From TrEMBL:
InterPro entries referenced in this protein's UniProt entry, alphabetically: MBL_Glyoxalase_II, Metallo-B-lactamas, RibonucZ/Hydroxyglut_hydro, TPR-like_helical_dom_sf, TPR_rpt
Stretches with biased composition (Polar residues): 377-387
GO molecular function: hydrolase activity; metal ion binding
This protein's record includes keyword Endoplasmic reticulum: no
Protein source organism: Hesseltinella vesiculosa
Pfam families from the UniProt entry: Lactamase_B (PF00753)
Protein's name according to its UniProt entry: Metallo-hydrolase/oxidoreductase
Metallo-beta-lactamase domain mapped to chain residues: 148-331
Cross-referenced SMART domains: Lactamase_B, TPR
Length: 410
């Protein structure tokens, strides 16, 4: 199917160089194509044509497994031509667009020696009814699906050492995921103290979480910011205090897995006093409920919430991070990853902070996983500007009208 993107080349020179690049592309000579597209950029004079060149070069980088360069070029396309993601929407290739980048992201993580596994409640966890015929626990699982929490396994590929982030709702399922992947759990991390991230064992209706995990693995400890430890202890009094380690101190700023993977704790208060984000190898941020992606941030109207603190966190702490860092949120509210650049552009970070988005209600979420509207939003907010057909680059028109027997540049 031909691409609807056919902006005219800036001049004959850029047309000729792009033609050469596209010919190399179609022959799968990606390094040669990259060179021609780069030369053509020097002669480009319009944003649309420059965006086309970045898009084609991004595709070449992706296919040549130079994934961070592919990501950087794709972000350039979004900056130059923010309406271009609509092409995939028009072609209704939502799932292809999202899955393509997810695969690239996963390959990039593995190249850096670590693996981040998202376990989504309602998709990967809490999908089976408990074996016991307890109607209350079945209702807990049903409620868990509405919350759309994301639990994270962060593993060093070489050593197989693994950390679990925000273990809750379905500890059996989490442990099974560890076993299936052959990981050895060495610690767990809590982004904040709300019960949908740590569980509770004090109320009549118990939610499996941190307490259950620590009982199952008596050799590990949980890393929690000191300001959230009291509330965790209040809802989970069965956890011995010596199993909880205060993070973000002088001696607990980082946690190392094997030789290549390190996790850095960043205090990001506002949603709760002790909210923390985890920066993996300085390039992947597990943000909990502080930054929920898609232009949303954590609520401040719950116990312990502080709007001014959250504004400072978003404006300064997270706002100063590198734009290329990939962000993983604590819930899937239509978007399960983003980048610092995308969230900054949406007005949720840095000096361009314009306000706070509130988490959607459960009713709002019911239609999101299957609706075309939600996938349209996901594609638009994610990096989905790689070429539509990976066998062909995006097309461009000659800078001047061509005779009827001339061919459109591909």
């Amino acid at each position: 199917m031909a691409s609807p993107f056919q902006p005219p080349a800036s001049n004959s020179k850029s047309y000729s160089l792009t033609l050469k690049g596209n010919q190399h592309y179609e022959k799968q000579q990606y390094n040669e194509a990259i060179q021609e597209y780069t030369k053509s950029m020097e002669h480009a004079t319009t944003a649309d044509f420059l965006a086309l060149l970045y898009s084609n070069r991004s595709s070449c980088y992706l296919l040549a497994h130079q994934l961070m360069l592919a990501l950087m070029d794709a972000e350039k396309v979004i900056q130059l031509a923010p309406d271009w993601p609509k092409v995939k929407v028009e072609l209704e290739q939502y799932d292809d667009a999202i899955q393509l980048y997810r695969r690239a992201l996963e390959m990039d993580n593995r190249d850096m020696g670590f693996h981040i596994q998202q376990l989504e409640v309602g998709r990967d966890l809490a999908v089976q009814k408990p074996s016991f015929a307890n109607p209350v626990q079945r209702q807990v699982f049903d409620f868990a699906k509405q919350m759309r929490n994301i639990i994270y396994l962060v593993a060093d590929i070489e050593s197989k050492q693994c950390v679990i982030v925000d273990a809750c709702w379905d500890i059996d399922g989490i442990c099974q995921a560890l076993e299936d992947r052959g990981y050895t759990i060495v610690a767990c991390v809590v982004t904040h103290s709300h019960i949908d991230h740590v569980g509770h064992d004090t109320f009549p209706i118990k939610v499996n979480g941190l307490a259950s995990l620590l009982k199952r693995y008596p050799h590990i400890k949980a890393y929690i910011h000191a300001e959230d430890i009291p509330s965790v202890r209040q809802t989970n009094p069965s956890i011995p205090i010596n199993r909880l380690v205060a993070s973000c101190t002088e001696i607990t700023t980082q946690l190392h897995l094997g030789k290549r993977t390190h996790l850095r704790f960043i205090h990001t208060p506002g949603h709760t006093p002790g909210s923390q984000s985890i920066l993996v190898n300085d390039c992947r941020l597990i943000a909990g409920d502080t930054l929920l992606c898609g232009g949303l941030c954590g609520r401040t109207d719950l116990a312990g919430g502080d709007r001014r603190q959250l504004e400072n966190t978003l404006r300064h702490t997270l706002g100063q991070l590198d734009d290329r860092i990939v962000v993983y949120p604590g819930h899937n509210y239509g978007v399960d990853w983003s980048t610092i650049a995308i969230e900054r552009e949406k007005g949720c970070l840095g000096e361009d902070l314009v306000g706070f988005g509130m988490s959607p209600t459960s009713n709002d979420l019911e239609e999101r996983p299957t609706s075309r509207k939600s996938k349209r939003a996901s594609v638009s907010s994610m990096i989905s500007t790689f070429s539509i057909d990976k066998k062909r680059p995006l097309s461009v028109q000659h800078p001047t009208p061509l005779p009827m027997n001339s061919h459109t540049l591909r």
